Amino acid sequence: MAHPFPDTTATDDTEESSDEGRHHDLLDHVGDWGPVPTPAGLFQLVPVRVERDLPLLSRWMNDPAVAAFWELSGPPAVTADHVRAQLTCDGRSVPCVGVLEGTPMSYWEIYRADLDPLARHYPVRPHDTGLHLLIGAGGDRGRGLGGTLLRAVADLALDRRPASARVIAEPDLRNIPSVTAFLRAGFRFSAEIDLPGKRAALMVRDRSLRHLL
């Protein structure tokens, strides 16, 4: 069954939608960043709505390749709790579905790295923007799509967030395909850092270097 995204600009009267609209200012209204052309097609970040997106997100989280790093496998309530924790906080993290050519195919978390616990583990700068990504379908992995979309979203964040001088990511060092995708997307490897539950590669895409990498 097709996943419904009839109108990504529509609003409704749910409390969840109200929370999203009220809090997105910490990240310059991710839901309004709009579509961006990529070599793979037109891509857009659509902020998550639990009632609409939970079945798809939970299915992705139960893929063993995803579960090994996200650790959100199990009943849908596990994923729902993870997403709702972001939707009901102060807006420092915005969960999104990545829609490519009209098809939802990835899950993203756009977050304020300078306001995140991550800030205790690296030389933070004000308004650093963080990214988490998973590619949903196995058939979309291993063919360079992750790097293409990471570059597009990182550059979109720099375009839409003029106060942010860089985009930060912290993939697990064991996740070689993820680290490779960030490198292909123009991120530079900055350091190895110890985070709760993992040793991570600190990856950085600098505004000042974006046209060189």
Automatic annotation (TrEMBL):
SUPFAM superfamilies tied to this protein: Acyl-CoA N-acyltransferases (Nat)
Domain N-acetyltransferase: 43-208
Domain of life the protein comes from: Bacteria
UniProtKB keywords: Antibiotic resistance
InterPro entries assigned: Acyl_CoA_acyltransferase (IPR016181), Acyltransferase_MbtK/IucB-like (IPR019432), GNAT_dom (IPR000182)
Segments for region (Disordered): 1-30
Ranges of compositional bias, category Basic and acidic residues: 19-30
GO BP field: response to antibiotic; siderophore biosynthetic process
Metabolic or biological pathway: Siderophore biosynthesis; mycobactin biosynthesis
Protein's UniProt keywords contain Transcription: no
Keyword Amino-acid biosynthesis: no
Function: Acyltransferase required for the direct transfer of medium- to long-chain fatty acyl moieties from a carrier protein (MbtL) on to the epsilon-amino group of lysine residue in the mycobactin core.
PANTHER family to which the protein is assigned, alphabetical: LYSINE N-ACYLTRANSFERASE C17G9.06C-RELATED
The name this protein goes by in its record: Lysine N-acyltransferase MbtK
Species this protein is from: Streptomyces griseomycini
Source taxonomy: Bacteria, Bacillati, Actinomycetota, Actinomycetes, Kitasatosporales
